[in-house]
Amino acid sequence: MNEPTAERRPTFGQAIQVRLVSDLKKSQAYYHTVLGCQVDDWGHAERGGMVVILQQASSPEDIRPNAPAKKRQDYPTEWEGPDHGWDTFIHVQWEDFEPLVEEIREKGGTIAIEPFSDRHGEFEFKNVYIQDPDGYHLVLGAMRKAEASANKR
User: Which residues lie within the region annotated Disordered (predicted)?
Assistant: First the structure.
């Protein structure tokens, strides 16, 4: 007898951001030199799980980093959302956070907002805002389960 089989649901592949930039060559150099990405002639900038496609904007008005999002009361923790605009959020391992920040700083990267820590529910977070040549914010974020002693405030 044939057993009923679950129907396979189609899935999406990796989502890749497309970023309009004012000077493609300058942005390719920045993503390669400062962020350590492999950058090809198509404008693909990749490091680990981060992939961005850099494309030349037709006009300066087309370059629009994200504004801060509206705060919301319905997150599952007390957090209401970021205070500043995020254009790319990049998860990094907790132990990689400080070395990555130092690497970017040493290579001349702009730290728009210095590293800070926070807690939401059972988790503690570290974030830093890196600003690219067009003002886009790449937020490096690390997360881990809060230690028992840190949970007692």
Answer: 57-80
CA–CA distance, 45 with 132 (Å, rounded to integer): 13
Whole-number pLDDT of residue 129: 97
Dihedral angle over CA of 8, 14, 18, 19, nearest 10: 150
The pTM of the full predicted model, rounded to 2 decimals, is: 0.83
Residues 49-88: tens digit of each pLDDT? 999 999 999 999 999 998 887 777 776 666 666 778 889 9
Question: How far out from the chain centre does Cα 49 lie?
Answer: 10
Answer yes or no: is 45 within a domain: yes
* CATH code (residue 91): 3.10.180.10
C-alpha separations of 15 from 18, 28, 42, 53 in Å: 10, 20, 17, 11
Domain ranges, residue 39: 17-58+84-151
Task: Output the CA angle 112-49-110, nearest 5 degrees.
Answer: 15
Widest pairwise Cα distance in the chain = 67
The predicted pLDDT at position 152 comes to 44
For residue 77, being part of any structural domain is answered with no
